[in-house]
Amino acid sequence: MPLGLRRKKKFNTKETSRLVEGEHTDAAVRSLPSPPAPARRLVFHTQLAHGSATGRVENFSSIQELYAKIAGVFEIPPSEILYCTLNTPKVDMGKLLGAQIGLEDFIFAHIKGIKKEVNVYKSEDSLGLTITDNGAGYAFIKRIKDGSIIDSVKTVCVGDHIEAINGENIIGWRHFDVAKKLKELKKEELFTLTLIEPKKAFDMEPRSKAGKSSTGKIGTGRETLRLRSKGPATVEEVPSETKEKAIGKVDDLLELYMGIRDIDLATTMFEAGKDKGNPDEFAVALDETLGDFAFPDEFVFDVWGVIGDAKQE
Fold first, then answer.
1. Residue 132 CB contacts under 8 Å (≥ 6 apart), including other chains
2. Which stretches does UniProt call biased (Basic and acidic residues) (predicted)?
């Protein structure tokens, strides 16, 4: 075969040359990756619980960032915010904002009100208090047991922030450290609580008017924004009823064994055990993620039982 026949053919005309170049260009355009989809914009409506205009917050990944955003909207220091409730301005611990926010939830921020000092005589080992915290350094009273020591002190209320115990400032403490401190107080002695109650509304009319604009937005979504102490927040599906019940039972066990209630901690424990095959694997997982708590063996077995029941359902 003559060698000349293996050479590439030259373009006979300028038109042919442009045609082939155009084909290469079109192929290159078709091979380019599609541009990424625009990030989902998540905007939440918010008010001060004692009454305010409605503001909007977005672009936050943690409780601290959320408080800073709310503070910026209402031109107050972030340290003034005690905690937030979802879809109600009332001090309702069942509606307390935790690590998850429904995408249609309305956020009410409770800010500092009156400071008070209360003397309490510890006549029994148990005070009848359940303590939680806002994830940003403020511990407060989540529940008061009927007939308990604290129940008899009517100036102490659910929702009060505990600022100091016997003059010792406890801002920055986690709720389980505060519970331990109260438990270690000597029996048959007087102690002093420095409390700050959430600011209360004197005129509810402005909030009632503002609240009308949020009807239809309260608790209607099936997705939540999960806040994280490290890393970006993520949008997640609402957990199943079985999972919610199981986490609630774990929270009950936390109160029974440890004297605390913490739905975020209960959720972490459930997540640590849901893919484990036996209680030993679960115990190892707890040590790796929550080793500082030193949970008793009986508690770990009871929690494993709750997770096992949820798996079967």
1. 93, 96, 139, 140, 142, 175, 260, 261, 262
2. 14-27
